[in-house]
Amino acid sequence: MFRSRCSAAANGFAQLACIAVSFDAAWAQGVEQRGAAEVSFVGSQASYSSTARLSTSGLSFTFSQYWPKAGLLEGSAEGFMNQGALRAGTDYLRLSDLRWGGERVALTWGDFSVDPYPLGLPFLNIAVPRIEANGFHLETVGKKHVYRVFVGRGSLLAGARIPLRYRSGQNVAGAEASWDLTNSLSISGRVVDFGRQDPNALRGITSGFGANSSLPAALSVTSDLLWKPRSEFKAFAEASYSAFQGAYETGPKPGGIAGLWWESSRWKWHTNYLRQPASYLPVAGYIVDARSGYFADVSFAVHPRLDIYGAASLQYLDTAQILGGLQYRQVSNTVGTTARLAWHTDLSAQYTDLAMRSTGNADQHGKFTTVSLAKALKRQTLRLSVRQLSITGQTGATRQNSLELGDDVRVGRFTLSGASRWERDALDFRGGVQGNFKQLTVYAQVEAGSDLASKTLFATTATRSNSFGLQYRIGRFWSVSADAWNSRVLVNLNEDTVALLAASGQLTPILANQQQWSAFLRVSRRLSWGGANYSRSDIAGIANRATPFVGALGGVIVVDHPGKGPAPAAGVAILLDDYRTASSDLFGRYRFEDVPTGVHRVSIDPRHLPVDFADGDYRIETANVELHRTARADFSIRAAAVMEGHVEAPKGVRLSEVVVRVEPGGRYTFVDDQGVFRMEGVPEGDYQVRVDTAGSGESIAPVAVQSIALRAEEPASFRFELTRAVKELPIRSLPVGSSN
């Protein structure tokens, strides 16, 4: 009867409500049941050019219901209107904490996520996409093993502020298993079958996914080993065997990872070797490439007040088989130091040397040096930074020097910040204020200045941006969060050439005026039942406490700024077993109490990241919680930065079809009709930025790749100038003495 009623129900909210009511009727008599839910209205408006405007709004519903005899039932249903079309968010039902034959069983129907490394990957330099799909996921956990089976249709999560689900057109099915052979040795295996991708599934979607293409079917088999003889040391190894069913690769390809990890109070070092063919994990929507290379980093606490560190990597990327001719060889070396000087003064310095060679021997060589000082006073912190960037490429050498002075002041419940940056004859300023009250948090930021990177002989670029946001809790059940952002890019005539242009009678003081803005609103109502004002995390705690064998899980989250070293990351949400959440405090610490004994998955929750941190495929740690003991899992997160710039082109070139691509990472964005582009949420790091003019409708001369050491404290600005390719005319030979 239960099955017939719910199978006839419609998708989304009606189906979730039907299942919840059916479970409620089955266990209502004589059983203590507790639950919580949250209903939210979410809306977002954005404009990135005079012709491009994005509008998204809809409802989100999540709930948790616990029955001692059945387990913990959780669900989510989200529906949004996006540009006049109905789009789904994250929709799933999950029933966990089932007991069967000594196993703890969890069933998920709907959207689910699979970590490709069942034992966890201890190296941050290796990034692979998670397997996201809509279908069925089964997990069983025993004392010494974890088994997972899944099948579904691939999905991709995208959206500037509101995450939307897109079907990738690729079927996936697979299984994972891991075993703890001893207290220090674990092994695992993974088999994943990728179906052939529908070439029309992602057509027209420009949310940062890979190029529209049709990936062939593939089979990937891996086996991992993790050895942890002591808390400071880890050794990881993987052997893989994969193959495409098509012409991208000739026959099956082996691959592997081998690496060592050590972190003690004074020494920290990590080293690994990687070799992965293109068929290793061909997830639709992401750049598929063959990669190999070495990586090593080391840091040493010479003194309690002095740390030195260094890193070196050699990486090969080959996307020629998929994207038609892109090959990269990248060599990177970094050295740096952090020192805690007298009088509460901190010093940090870093030097990075990056060399990249791409297809056609297009060499790029960049050097980045930064030195920073920070002085802590009673209620404020003063900062001074000096930076130098030099880039050498086919078009010549460029150098940029900058000096920045900043200050943070804490006055009661408010924190005020400001900074000024000098770069030749340009001056940029940014300031902000944040207020924290009992139930209200507000902030505002402003930035203004001229952009020297976009300055030419005939034009100068000035920018101004403003942002405002608040979070307000109304009583016990309602909460409101909102923010707004506005940016203006104004291109004026260069004063040095005003007289020249005035003489020609063609004087227009404003060449371009580009405005961008966005607004976001979320209104939430919390519901609870079972005799108390419960939240969803409270319900998860009740379910965990029903298990008599529990321990705890905690750790520290740091944000690793290049050149500054690690710093505590506050307000970052940590996800335990896909349903429990905890946030890091001011010191970056988080903790879960009443965690059942056994192996658990813990990760950074990318759905609730503060705007200061970048999205990404953050690793998932596996922690073995023992009775009445605290397991530990630490994380490193990356700060978010902004790239923006301007593309100039001759008349007739369709700028709206020009694409700006960023490597590594496969990120890209389209240029608007004015030649302006902006990319937010990019992790700090070293990148190569290039312009793709294949869709411009013109034959364009090659444009040099630009290198950048991207940092969160200031947007990176670029200027690209397109020129038409010169056509070579045939030369006709004439006889000697001919007059023609």
Structure description:
- By secondary structure, the chain is mostly beta strands.
- Among the domains are: 32-65 and 438-546, no CATH class; 105-288, Beta Barrel (Porin), CATH 2.40.160; 549-637, Immunoglobulin-like; 641-721, Immunoglobulin-like, CATH 2.60.40.1120.
- It has a 26-stranded antiparallel beta barrel. Strands 28, 29, 32, 35 and 36 form a 5-stranded mixed β-sheet that branches. It has a 4-stranded antiparallel β-sheet with strand order 31-30-33-34.
- A hairpin with a 3-residue loop joins β17 and β18 (345-358).
- Mean pLDDT is 79; it is low at 1-31, 206-212, 452-459 and 493-512.
CATH architecture of one domain: Beta Barrel
* Unreliable stretches covering 5 or more consecutive residues: 1-31, 206-212, 452-459, 493-512
CATH level-3 fold name of one domain = Porin
Q: Per the principal axes of the C-alpha atoms, what is the gross shape?
A: globular
Please report the number of helical segments. 5
Q: Level of helix content?
A: under 10%
Radius of gyration: 28 Å
CATH class of one domain: Mainly Beta
Structural class: mainly beta
Percentage of β-strand residues: over 45%
